[in-house]
Amino acid sequence: MDDIISVYCTLYCYPFSLYSIMVKYLIRLIERSAKSHDGASRALKIRERLLDLQHDENIAEWYILDVNRKGQVPTMAIKGDRSRITDSLDISYWLCDMFPNLLPCQYEAIIRRLLRDLHDIEGISITIRRRDGPEEDLIDPCVDDMLARDDISPEYRQALEAKKIFDDSHVPKASHHVNQLALGRRGGPTVLDAQIVPFVTRVEDAGRARLAPETLLRYAAARRASPEWDVVMGGKSTIWRKEYGQVCDTYDMSADLPPAATLFVPRPSSGLV
Ligand SMILES: N[C@@H](CCC(=O)N[C@@H](CS)C(=O)NCC(=O)O)C(=O)O
After folding, report:
1. 18 lines ligand 1 (CB under 6 A)
2. Which structural domain range is residue 39 located in?
3. How many domains are there within the chain?
4. DSSP conformation letters of 103-172
5. 94-142, pLDDT tens digit by residue?
6. Does 273 fall in a domain?
7. Is residue 272 part of a domain?
8. Probe residue for ligand 1, chosen from 19, 25, 202 as the CB with the greatest number of ligand atoms within 8 Å
């Protein structure tokens, strides 16, 4: 145990963000089999820092300048490393590098292809309703509101302008998106499970179950019956509902929470996970 190095990480996330849920669920799937330190080389200690997306904390100066220039969640920050992993798929593959059973060699090519397809779909297109108005309706005006202020720093202004360009580049695509789902072969659990279950659940929660094949719906329902899903969602829908109350009133948003998960990273040959 003595020679196990602890690596401290912070996952910036939001409880009702599809892509945050994907990473959080993956962590719980890993945790199931990475609880033992026997044969481990490192211990990943992952704490969660919830961002209050309901109050635009994703475009707060500290976050957009120091954590994620896209102003999005999830982001994984590794202590002692200035770089940040700012996309759920990149975070997932970063975890797969340490826990290779999540990406079994015989399925790697198909899993990568399916996940690429899955991430080609704009997540927001699952929840938005068809609109008659201009595509820009989809873009939250919070960045413009902040830019309209005259008391912000030049660096922050520049970062917000870049965020606006980023939003313009991908959000309108969502209103035209054809929702599509891919079903792959699986062993499991793999990184594919970690992404498909939240995705299909989001489709259902948005009242669009008709878009998903029956087999996928059944598979996702079975996976949701597991304790790992329960830890992530606590019995809630993947889409925020009024009856849950404001996120900042119901979740601990403090910056200094203890690690939510400790994952023991196997040495390459130990066959754990
Ligand atoms: N491709 C990104 C998408 C991340 C994303 O769309 N995050 C949403 C929440 S689910 C977000 O942060 N939205 C706020 C914004 O874009 O301003 C990923 O897979 O991590």
Report:
1. yes
2. 5-266
3. 1
4. S-HHHHHHHHHHHHHHHHS-THHHHPPP-SS-GGGGS-THHHHHHT-SSS-HHHHHHHHHHHHHHHHHHH
5. 999 999 999 999 999 999 999 999 998 888 878 876 665 555 566 778 9
6. no
7. no
8. 19
